[in-house]
Every structure is written in structure tokens, then in C-alpha cells.
Amino acid sequence: MKLNKFKTIAPAAALLLSASLSSCMADLDKGNIDPNVDPTPSITGLYSKCYAGLIMEGNDGNADFTIQDNGKSTLIRNIYNFNELPTDESICWWSDGGMTEISYNQFKPDNETLKYLYKRMMSNISYENHFLSLDAAKAEPTKYAEVRVIRAYHYLLMLDFWGDPVFTDKISAEIPRQAHTYNANFDASKTYTRAEFLQMGREFLFNWVKDELLAAEPDLLEAKPETDTDPDYGRVDKGTCWLLLSRLYLNAGTYLNNDGQNNPYWKEARDYAEKVIEKFPLFDDSKISSEAKARGYQPYDLLFMGDNGSNGSSCEAILPLMQDGNKTQGWGGSAFFIASSIDDKSRTVTGQTLATTFTNWSGMRVRPSFLTKFTTNPKNFEGKTAEQIRAMGIDDRAMIWGVDHTLDLGNNDAFKPGLTVVKWNNNYSNGGTPHDAEKVDTDFFLFRVAEAYLNAAEAEMHLNGENSANAKGWIDALRKRAHAYLHSSYTLNDVLDERARELYCEGFRRTDLIRFDQFGGSQATYNWEYKGGNKKGTTFDKKYNVYPLPSDEMRLNPNLTQIDGYYEVKN
């Protein structure tokens, strides 16, 4: 199922999927096909739309809601903005949209980019709810289960970002209510604190997501590695469901106890990760082609290249989001992950350009503290090309560009202060030509098996101690693939650092730091540059481990109570 440039169907009924007063719904596209008159294209269009919403902007390049820059509406771009920018792995100097405030952990309800994240989430959920409401969809159990998993993924993100967002799982003209009101323990006649609302909302969503994934699993496609020539490449299968369950269980301490280490579900987190590991192999030295090796590539490189759907690395892609420079053009998918961190001087680890003329975005850099995951002296990377850093033989995953950049972030008011990431590119590992000189072919591996290795290792250490041989084996496998030296033993802190090395800029870091109690709160001992808005870094309140509901939503929906720790913005 190759997802091309979508001509999706957005029936007028979609305007009611969350609520008539919700700003994120008011701008949904109005289609001209009545699903009751012409149900077949409606099913096809909505099914495709549920996938497209993970990486595309909307119908034929237009966003699904009113926004000046369509690229800023895309889901994975906003996951990056809110799970990477507030951490040691990324920082942005752009002043528009409140990007610097996000980078400084200064989260406010009127942040423009926060509004885009929320609108995208609710827009996608509306399409998913609509598809799942149709009898014709229920008649196709596999596709129906896939969309249930996609919707559960969105609500897992909502749980992680807000804790107590609005919730709706059906078409309704009613004004939406927050998740806490669906908790069986909620009593509308009683008075609660905002903290109590937050915890009830988290508990409800945790159980709802869990139940949805477990219910969908039996009807899904069997878990198996695929390439972009396989008919089911890019579809949700049982592996996707297992990895989402592992991720949910891994963070149960955060969601249920507001303490990432107080987790009653370590065993489930490990067991579901192991199910993934049994079905999906790592792409390592035994699988890379001799041609790619001759061109100077290592296995980790091929995961993030323009031909990653066909170069063999997709064997570890559990859910690849497909990109094609001719057919899926946009500014918020894989193109963002390449262009946002480069200029025309940037080069790959083999000395090539990034194979896209999108080179003038020049916004994202890494903070020096992140580089200490690769070297005890990050100054060693300053002034060096990615090729030179690779030649240092430290770790293949250190795909960093340092030429004409300083390690120090200065005042964070320009691109050159701070080293940059050249992890993604649009080159082909066999020397082939991309489909377009600007738009990219690089599929985005939303879920990949490396996460399962790390989930399993972390949970195993909690269950059987840090000296677990199984945990060591899973971590060693990733480090062997990266040609990094193997440790004689590993600790839980090593797991956190290994997650940074393996998964950086892929949308995990904030959640990981929260789970290890190293994000907000006085208990957090890990510091990084500009944490809390201070150049040297400072702690901030644990309440800010979740984001505020956007002020637009608060103004338009009288059913909402702002998230604990924040205050409504009144205009």
C-alpha cells in the first residue's frame, strides 16, 4: 500500500467529530462526497487519510486546518518540536511560533506551535473516529484494527503531552469533555484539585489505550519485515501494536504514579518488546550490501537515507511512513528532519551533500551536554566534518557536523553557535538518483526494532537487576551495530544514555527523561545548557512535565479545566 499524494475525502460530518465549538475542528476541510451516497470512496479515502495524518500536511499539500505555513501542521514535525526541543538533544533559535520558549522549557497556553500540535492531533483523531464509525469499515476487520491502533497511538501521545486532554472516540455534536470525566472514579458532584483531574485523566487514558491495543491485536496483519516493494509495506501490523504496548507499559510509572520509576508494568513492557525482537531483526553488518559498504556506509546510516525502503534497512522498520519526492511532497515530514539542521555547507558522514536543495532552514542544533554521550570532550567535534568525526572511530551514530560552528550556544540567536545533526539525508546508498532535487524520498521509520531492544533492556534491569545478561545482550547488539566498544556491564543510567545515542532526534527524549525523573522537578540531577531558560541550565517545576491546553481551546470549550500548573490566557 504505497501512499501517494493523497486525494482524501473529508466529509462534512467530520466537523462534528470532536465538537462544534472546538477550534481544532472548525477548520477541517469540507468535502463534497456524502459517505451515505458513495460509501466506497469514502472508506478508501478515510483509510488513507488515517495513515497520511502521521506524516502529511493534508489534502494535496494544504493543511487540514487554517495555518500560514502548511509544513508546521505535520504530526512528526510537532512531535520533534515538543519531545526534542525542550531537552539536551536539540535547541532552536527561530523566534517565530514560540520555538525558543519551547527550547527553554517555558511552556505557555498561548504558544502558537503548541496550538498546531493540538490541532493536528484532534484533526487526525476526527478522521479516525469517522472511519471507525462506518459500517463498511467494520466489515473490513484488518483495516478497522489498523485504524484503531493509529487512533490509540494518537491518544498515547495526548496522554504523554497533556495527561488530561479532551477525549472523544465517536462522532458527536456534543461539546467535548476532558479525559478525567470518563474515569469511573470521577464524581461530578465533588470538587477536585487540578492535580487530581490530571491524575484521573492519565489513569483513564492509560487504560483506554491499553484496552484498544489489546482489542485490535488479533485482527492485525502478522508481524514481519518488509521492503517498499511489498504490498503491505507501511501498514500497521501486530509488531506495531506490540511496540506501542511496550512503550505504554514502559511509561506506566509516569502515567499512573507521576514517578517513572514506580512502575507496576515492567514485565509487560519487557514481554511485548521481546515479541517485537523475535520478529524483526536489526539491520547490521551481516545485512548491508557490499556496494553500500564500498561507498563508505555503515548499517546505521542506511536507516535514514533516501532509499531506506529498499536498501535492506527496512527489516527493522516496524512502521515506516512513506515519502516520495514526486508523490508525497511536503515541508513537515522527512524533509524537515533533513533541512531544519543544515545549510549549504553541511555534508554527510561520507562527505556528500544531503541531496536536497532544502538547505536554508538552518535552525536546529544540539546542546553540548548531548555530545557527552559520545565523547568526554565535545570540543573535539568542533570544526570537524561528519566524515572526520566518523573517522575517529567512536560510534557510528555520532552523525554530527562541526565545521564553521562553535560548540558553545552563545545567546542562541543564530545558527552557527552549536553543532548540528546530519543524521537524515536523501542520498541513495547505491548511488542512485532521488526522485526530486528538493522534496525527499526518505521514509521515516516511526517505530523500529531498536526501541524494542532498549525497552526490553530497561525493563529487564528493573525486574532482574542491572547485571542481567539478557539486558547486556540487547544493549551489546545495538553497540556492535554502531561499532562502539562494549562495556563489561551496564546500569540503568547507561540505558538512558544508550537511548540518546540510538534514538536522538526521533521524538523520544523528553518522555525518556521524564521516566527517569530527570526532566522537571527538584529531584532531576541532570542539567543541560538553557534548561529552564538559563544558559548554564536550571531546574524547573515537575508540573511542567506536561503541557498546557492551548488557550484557543480554553476560550472555545467551557468544559475544559486548564492542566495543573498553568493558568488560562484571557484575551
What does this structure look like?
There is one protein chain. The chain is mainly alpha-helical. It has 21 helices and eight strands. It has helices at 23-26, 39-52, 75-83, 99-103, 112-133, 135-138, 141-161, 194-216, 238-250, 252-257, 266-279, 290-294, 299-302, 334-339, 368-371, 386-391, 449-464, 469-481, 492-503, 509-515, 551-556, and strands at residues 91-92, 166-167, 177-178, 317-321, 364-365, 400-401, 420-421, 444-448. The strands form four sheets. The chain has a two-stranded antiparallel ribbon. Strands 2-3 form a two-stranded antiparallel sheet. A two-stranded antiparallel ribbon has the order 4-8. Helix 7 (141-161) runs antiparallel to helix 8, helix 8 runs antiparallel to helix 9 and helix 17 packs antiparallel against helix 18 (469-481). The N and C termini lie far apart (46 Å). Residues 1-41 have low confidence and may be disordered.
Please count the beta strands (DSSP E, at least 2 residues each). Answer: 8
Strand order, sheet with most strands: 1-5
As a percent range, the share of helical residues equals: 25-40%
> What is the arithmetic mean of pLDDT?
91
Global geometry = globular
Q: In angstroms, what is the radius of gyration?
A: 22 Å
Assign the structural class, choosing from mainly alpha, mainly beta, alpha/beta, alpha+beta, or little secondary structure: mainly alpha
For the largest beta-sheet, the strand count, sense and barrel status come to: 2 strands, antiparallel
Low-confidence stretches: 1-41
Into which percentage range does the β-strand content fall?
Answer: under 5%
